């Protein structure tokens, strides 16, 4: 990759994630020539997301035949396996490409998701869309889900028993989609999927794999939740690095 192409890629990532771009100016020298981000970005076209052929799948770990996502969504809509069904408005199952190479997994629905029945909407959802665009993907090219399908009251963290109740649904979603990479967004999702108790800042950049007897195993990339990035915009650069790592894993495993 040439220097111009590398600069184009960096500027495109940073622009999509709404991170300020600074140019170095030599002491005593003239102001640097300004090139628009759009001009730089045009040097590197965004590659279209690749898709895999669908296949019939059985979940050995769950010990049952995997339902289609549509059928599983119907099952989830009537779920009463934990007390969260008493306060939910809608279940929030998942959305996106059922043959996606990348799966985004968060922790739980919030108020916007509970009202719409779709994961990652509102301001956090718009930022997630921008983050995906920054690495040449789109919301439609990935599959997005949460580890639990009902909103906890007042957006509290999910309880262990709630996550355990929903775990078979998530296992089946992963078994159907068969992603090449899982991006775990937020502390709760990252710790749950990776089986770790470390703080998310210490989990970032480490190698984890989805432990469900997958062959080959599915790597997990840990990053911050978009809702956290809205409160702490200086951390966006770290999430940019995480998403670049996810893209590199996808490119290494076509």
Textual characterization of the structure:
The protein is α/β, with parallel strands linked by helices. The chain has two domains: 45 residues, no CATH class; 203 residues, Uracil-DNA Glycosylase, subunit E (3-Layer(aba) Sandwich). Helices cover 39% and strands 12% of the residues. The protein contains ten helices and eight strands. A six-stranded mixed β-sheet has the order 3-5-4-6-8-7, with helices on both faces. It has a two-stranded antiparallel ribbon with strand order 1-2. Strand 7 and strand 8 form a beta hairpin. Helix 1 runs antiparallel to helix 5. The longest helix is centred in the middle third of the chain and has 18 residues. The protein is globular and about 50 Å long. The protein starts with a helix and ends with a helix. About 17% of the residues have low confidence.
């Amino acid at each position: 990759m040439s220097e111009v192409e590398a600069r184009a890629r960096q500027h495109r990532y940073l622009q999509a994630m709404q991170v300020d771009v600074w140019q170095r100016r030599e002491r005593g020298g003239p102001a640097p020539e300004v090139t628009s981000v759009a001009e730089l970005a045009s040097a590197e076209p965004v590659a279209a997301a690749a898709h895999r052929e669908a296949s019939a799948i059985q979940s050995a770990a769950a010990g049952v035949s995997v339902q289609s996502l549509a059928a599983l969504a119907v099952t989830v809509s009537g779920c009463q396996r934990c007390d969260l069904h008493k306060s939910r408005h809608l279940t929030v199952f998942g959305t996106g490409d059922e043959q996606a190479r990348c799966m985004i997994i968060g922790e739980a629905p919030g108020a916007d998701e509970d009202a719409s029945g779709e994961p990652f909407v509102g301001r956090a959802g718009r930022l997630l869309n921008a983050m995906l665009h920054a690495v040449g993907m789109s919301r439609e090219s990935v599959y997005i889900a949460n580890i639990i399908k009902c909103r906890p009251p007042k957006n509290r963290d999910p309880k262990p028993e709630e996550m355990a109740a929903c775990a078979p649904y998530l296992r089946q979603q992963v078994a159907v989609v068969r992603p090449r990479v899982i991006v775990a967004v937020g502390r709760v999702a990252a710790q749950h999927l990776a089986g770790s108790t470390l703080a998310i800042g210490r989990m970032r950049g480490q190698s984890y794999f989805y432990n469900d007897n997958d062959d080959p195993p599915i790597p997990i990339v840990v990053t911050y939740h978009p809702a956290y990035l809205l409160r702490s915009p200086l951390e966006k650069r770290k999430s940019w690095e995480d998403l670049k790592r996810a893209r590199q894993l996808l490119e290494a495993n076509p």
